[in-house]
Amino acid sequence: MTIMSQTAQASVGTVSRVAKWGPLAVILCGTFLCGTFAYVLDFFVVSVALPDIQRSLPAGPDAIEWVVAGYGLTSAAFLVCGGRLGDHYGRRLMFRVGLGLFTITSALCAAAPDAGFLVAARLAQGFAAAIMAPNVLSILGTTYTGRDRVRAISAYGMVMGVAAVGGQLLGGLLIDANVAGLGWRTIFWVNVPVGVAALVAARRLVPASRAERAGRLDLAGAALLTAALVAVVLPLLDGRQQGWPAWSWACLAAAPFLLAEFAGSAGT
To answer: Are residues 49 and 114 in the same domain?
Structure first.
């Protein structure tokens, strides 16, 4: 009886630990895919692969710049919207939506037949990352309390550091391995099985939550904020490479007015 009792207690303890820390494991898998603020890991991994991408497709300098810059643009522009959607519709739901889209767009990037297709897929991948990333800390904040929250946030920060430091090494290893002759495409294909596994696990392990007073979804305000962020980020990403053309200065000049209009609409 004593042995059976100890076995039962151990089983209960194991289940309890899985229930307690399972959400963190799932969240960190998604976080590692998208990296700090949804793109540090991906930036570093893709940066290593750029010469191979340029030779393989082939792609000109402008297209190669947009493989990285396009991802940064959409992930930055829609980051706030992703968090707001999580508050309104549920953080687990939007985390899974973002993770699912990120997995699909990773496959599209891997299968890209030309540079234009790859750039479009990267833009969509950045949008997917922006939907997922802002809900990560919200989920951790609502799932854990006290010392457990400190441990969860510490683990999150550690994964961020590993993503930033190990991104170039991981990208180099994947390209050198040249699995099945895929070359640079491996850096995108590797996201697919990890993303699918995390997506399935998230449904069972990550608890659902949303803001208590989410209010109505301000689509006009979201559009204004997104336009303002694009007006700032787009010239900074692409203006310098093009010699600061007139459109880049026009965007920067319009950004304060768009932000002011957003602030005015938010206050009403």
So the answer is: yes
